[in-house]
Amino acid sequence: MLKHVDTHTGRIYWDTTRRIEFLSVGDYGKENNIKADFLGLHREINGVVHHCVDLRDKWVATVSTQRGCPCRCRFCDVPKYGFHGNVSAVGLEYQVATIIGGQPEVRSTNRFNVHFARMGEPTFNPAVIRFSSLRLKDVVNSMISAGTIHPVVSTMMPRMNRDLSSFLREWCRVKNEVYGGEAGLQLSINSTDDAQREWQFRGLSLALSDIAKAAESLPEPVGRKYTLNFAVTKDTILDAGLLTSMFDRSKFVVKITPIHETSNAVENGFDKSTSYTDYDVYREFERPLVEEGWDVIVFVPSKEEDADRITCGNALIADCQ
What DSSP assignment string belongs to 66-80? Predict the structure, then answer.
């Protein structure tokens, strides 16, 4: 049975039969929630004021690649739902088509992003590659007019995935060749300290040195660079010099976001005191990276977005069983 709930900026769907959850959301505009000096966005974001979004400008579909997740990250609520297997390519198509069909008043958008980031670790699911290569463009173009179609894989680099390297190489081929660079790969790093990373990811992510080796083997990105993502609190350890010694600034940008206020994040003691209204917590990470020559994106969500549970790490379906 398909259900949905409207949010301030979009709509969350969950299908109790298929055991998946997915999200349709608009964007406030990069000038309102992003600081990135290399893009000419210099304003520090001391809180994001909610306003109406226009899906005709940018439309984001955040889909589940698995029914639940086998990883147990301490900041994520998806583990509360358990793990019930991969979503098929047909299931991926169903989510995208449901999102587009669910808002028939919108028949065109400048940009349609598909984030493989709601529930599940996408590198465990080869259907992500097949769907993105063979069907995604056709599905979107058959339903709306989209100026750009931009799929993104976000991965926590699971150490127990024996096929991780081959998945990453193939996804980079899809990014560079099938989408001409207009696709994304985001590696969730969160800390440059292995002990802190081990605790956050419960020992299920590769060591940072192993992630760096995998990153070194990736081809040069066409178009957009790959992303090293740091979801931070004031307690995060982010050594800019160490990061520079391990990763190639010509291939990667650094993205800084807050740890979202999920139930697990609160229960596990992640500090949430300044994430949304005070830029100080971001500045201390941003400045050393910029001084090291990194392109840095600081993304700040609104309090409404986190309250609506549209951000990464949330699983509404976990509370609806």
Answer: EEE-S---TT-SGGG
- φ/ψ of 249, rounded to 5, equals -65, -20
Whole-structure pTM value: 0.94
Q: What is the DSSP string of 129-163?
A: HHHHHHTHHHHHHHHSEEEEEEEEEEE--BTT-TT
Take residue 22 and report the two structure tokens written for it.
């997915």
17-58 pLDDT, tens per residue? 999 999 999 988 888 889 999 999 999 988 788 878 999 999
CA distance 179 to 208: 29
Tell me what pLDDT residue 207 has.
Answer: 97
How many helical (H) and strand (E) elements, i.e. helices and strands, does the chain have? 11, 13
Closest CA to 118 of 314, 319, 320, 321: 314
Report which of 177, 213, 194, 188 is spatially closest to residue 123, judged by C-alpha positions. 188
pLDDT digits (tens, 9 = 90+) for 75-113: 898 988 999 999 999 999 999 999 999 999 999 999 999
Among candidate residues 34, 25, 32, 33, the one with its CA nearest the CA of residue 54: 25
From 46, 5, 75, select the one nearest 298 (Cα to Cα). 46
Residues shown for the chain:
321
Residue linked to tokens 């207009």: 182
Instruction: Compute the distance between CA of residue 296 and CA of residue 228 in angstroms, rounded to an integer.
Output: 10
Query: For residue 175, what is the DSSP state?
Result: I
CB 130 within 8 A of CB 136: no
Residue 162: CB partners within 8 Å, gap ≥ 6?
Answer: none
Task: Summarize the confidence of residues 116-137 as an average pLDDT.
Answer: 97
- Each residue of 215-260: pLDDT tens digit? 999 999 999 999 999 999 889 999 999 999 999 999 999 999 988 7
CA–CA distance, 197 with 308 (Å, rounded to integer) = 27
